[in-house]
Amino acid sequence: MSRVFPILATNLGTVRTGAPASGWFLWLPALLLLLGACVERSPVLFHGEVLPGDAASADAVDVVGTDFAFDVQHDRFEAGRIEFLFANRGQEPHEMAIVSVEDGRYGIPLTEIEFISPGESATLRTNLPAGSYAFVCLVITEDHHRPQSHVELGMFREFEVQ
Ligand SMILES: [Cu+2]
Fold this sequence. Notes:
mainly beta, Immunoglobulin-like, five-stranded mixed beta sheet, 2 helices, binds copper (II) ion
């Protein structure tokens, strides 16, 4: 752990100077994903497993990814096993990571469906304890030679588990 924080501080310093005023903290999930291998996982009980989209059960929660938002029918779920069926209906590739949210700050990705092409889908089988969470897309694309985080473009959505 002791090695992680100097690296993190360096990265945040770099991003801060290059990022617009919309808030460096929005970049945090993507940065932390890169560092994920070094950072201890959240101590809460957690389980995540990615399955092909067609493996979703009938009562899976539909999460639709668009350019650039998450469309979900509900923002509250019961603690325990939840299956999220993530379908990309945008024109760009998207991801669906789940992060915990504490005091408005986003934690490290707990689990994720990586890089889903337009028109594709996948299922994320989770076991979430009660708490505050958010879906975030960790894809960063380039626009006019400037990196643009999909989170920065609005691709995050908070939800509660109780
Ligand atoms: Cu995205």
